[in-house]
Design goal:
Length: about 280
């Protein structure tokens, strides 16, 4: 039975996910497939490339670099996270992504994007990581309002979390029947309709399907949470989530907070390690 790792997004809350992943990598836990959304994609690819610690390392190293992310990049390029620097210069030259390890690892790697013209999810399996693959990951993490849509394979793409925030159903349909799901919100979290809808109506009017998708995103997300609960009761998934709301904003880059959120992920994984190992052994 194929095992999967499902990673939701959440911007810098994804450092919790990175902490969990690093502990699992250190203990040799491997999956048949991984699916990531937004930060779950940008950080999750390091699982397949076997690069423990890389996510925290490059975020700390470049947190104050205006070439990486911030208002300067947004005003100059239309992207809060600078596209060329973050998705090409950084992984190719500055904190090198292990393309060979990613490409030789047998596990599948899938990402989720959202079609800006239809509002529907676009799923992509990345069999090899290269410059185009990095652009797909960029697309999955291109948050509306602060990112330009990315043109790939005839689509204009934005953040996958708009249309499928926790793609467990998708991964099960791909044959991954037993999954570990890492969330970046605590148990009992209930998403409310975004208060930013006036901004979406104003600045995203060229993409009415995105405006509509954002207006009902909370309904989609909460439905996925209900499905997770059902699958957990049936023993099909193991949920890993923070005990409390993570003390960091989606785009916040304060070192102390980044280190703390990452440590919270490691602490959670350390405490759940016996359960994780037992869950994985049941799939053998």
């Amino acid at each position: 039975m194929k095992t999967g790792l499902v990673l939701e997004g959440g911007g810098m809350r994804g450092l919790f996910t990175a902490g969990v992943m690093d502990v699992m990598m250190e203990h040799g836990i491997r999956f048949d497939g991984i699916v990531g959304v937004s930060a779950g994609a940008t950080f999750g690819c390091n699982y397949k490339s076997h690069q423990v610690g890389r996510v925290l390392r490059y975020n700390l190293r470049f947190k104050d670099d205006p070439r990486y992310m911030g208002l300067r990049s947004l005003l100059r390029t239309g992207d809060l996270v600078a596209a060329e620097f973050s998705y090409h210069t950084l992984p190719n030259e500055l904190d090198v992504f292990d393309f060979d390890a990613f490409n030789s690892d047998p596990s599948e790697f899938h990402i989720v994007c959202t079609d800006a013209l239809t509002g529907e999810p676009v799923y992509k399996r990345l069999d090899a990581m290269n410059d185009e693959g990095l652009d797909w990951i960029r697309a999955s993490a291109s948050m509306p309002l602060v990112s330009r849509p990315v043109s790939l394979d005839g689509h204009l793409l934005l953040d996958g979390g708009i249309s499928d925030s926790i793609p467990l159903r998708y991964f099960q349909a791909q044959g991954f029947r037993r999954n570990i799901v890492i969330l970046t919100q605590p148990k009992g979290f209930f998403k409310k309709r975004t208060k930013l809808m006036p901004l979406f109506h104003l600045f995203m009017r060229r993409y009415p399907a995105i405006v509509e998708a954002m207006s009902r995103r909370h309904l989609m997300y909460n439905d996925e949470l209900t499905y997770l609960e059902e699958q957990e009761r049936q023993g099909n998934i193991l949920l890993i989530y923070p005990q409390d709301t993570l003390p960091i904003g989606r785009t916040e880059q304060k070192e102390q907070k980044m280190r703390r959120v990452y440590a919270m992920g490691r602490e959670k994984a350390d405490g759940m390690l016996p359960a994780i190992q037992t869950f994985m052994k049941q799939n053998e």
